[in-house]
Amino acid sequence: MVDTLSEENIIGYFKNKSILITGSTGFLGKILVEKILRVQPDVKKIYLPVRAVDAAAAKHRVETEVVGKELFGLLREKHGDRFQSFIWEKIVPLAGDVMREDFGVDSETLRELRVTQELDVIVNGAATTNFYERYDVALDVNVMGVKHMCNFAKKCPNLKVLLHVSTVRGG
C-alpha cells in the first residue's frame, strides 16, 4: 500500500521533530519557519543558524529579521501575550555561518544543546541569490555551504530528511 502525500501527513510529520533551517532570514526561510509554527505548534525545536558574533546577536537577528516581521501576525494574534514565550520555547538561534564547518556553530554549543543528537530534519535554504555576486562569495555560500551542510548531516544519527533548496536563474 502506498501512503499518499497529503497536507495532514506533512503537518503530522513535524510533530515532536527538531528541525534545523539555514537561510531563515531570507524570503523563503522566514515563510517556512512561520508556516511550521502556525500549522504544527507541537514541533519540538527549530534551530536557526544565522550570521552573528555570539548568541545574543543571533537572537537579536532572529527577533528582528524573522519573528519580528508582519508575516508572524497570525501567530501573534493566536498566542497573544504568550507569543514571545511560545517563540523562544520552539526557536533556538545559533550564532554561526553556513560558509564554515558545522555551520560555524562552536562544538560546545552543539554538544550542550544536543543539536546533532536531536535533529530529525535539515532544510538548507541559505544561498546568495545575487546573480552578480563576486565568484568567490557565491562559491563559498552556494557550494561550500552545501558541502558543510552535508558533512554536518553525517554527524546527525537520527536525521530522517535533508532538504536542499537551490536558486536557478532562467535564461
From TrEMBL:
Functional note: Catalyzes the reduction of fatty acyl-CoA to fatty alcohols.
PANTHER family reported for this sequence: FATTY ACYL-COA REDUCTASE, MALE STERILITY PROTEIN 2-RELATED
Source organism, top-level taxon: Eukaryota
Protein's organism: Triticum turgidum subsp. durum (Durum wheat)
Catalytic reaction annotation: a long-chain fatty acyl-CoA + 2 NADPH + 2 H(+) = a long-chain primary fatty alcohol + 2 NADP(+) + CoA
InterPro entries xrefs: FAR (IPR026055), FAR_NAD-bd (IPR013120), NAD(P)-bd_dom_sf (IPR036291)
GO BP terms: long-chain fatty-acyl-CoA metabolic process; suberin biosynthetic process
EC numbers for this chain: 1.2.1.84
Family: Belongs to the fatty acyl-CoA reductase family.
Keywords of this entry: Lipid biosynthesis, Lipid metabolism, NADP, Oxidoreductase
Keyword Lipid metabolism found: yes
The protein's name in its UniProt record: Fatty acyl-CoA reductase
Residue ranges of every copy of the Thioester reductase (TE) domain listed in the record: 21-167
A GO term, aspect molecular function: alcohol-forming very long-chain fatty acyl-CoA reductase activity
